[in-house]
User: What shape does this take?
Amino acid sequence: MALTVTLVSAEAEVWHGEASLVVAKTVEGEIGFMAGHEPVLAILAEGQVRITRSNGEKIVATAEDGFLSMENDELTIVAGNAALQS
Assistant: This one.
C-alpha cells in the first residue's frame, strides 16, 4: 500500500507520485508518514522533505512557509517555496 504525495510551491507542482515513506519538518518537529497514517494538518517549517518511493528511490526537496495535510493515504504539502535537490 502506498501514499499518494503531492508537493507544490506557490508557482508550480514540484513533485507528484506514490511513496512508501515521507518525512517532513513541521514547526513541532519532524514527522514521518506511511500508508494508514491518521489525519494530520500541520504547519511546515523550513527544511527537507524526504520521499522514499516504493521501489526504494529517494527524492529530497527543500520546502518552507506552508502546511501539510494527510488524509486517506493522500499527503499534500503546500509550500511558499519548494524545490527538488539534485
The CA atoms of residues 5 and 46 lie 19 Å apart. The longest strand covers residues 58-71. Residues 3-71 form a domain with the ATP Synthase; domain 1 fold (CATH 2.60.15.10).
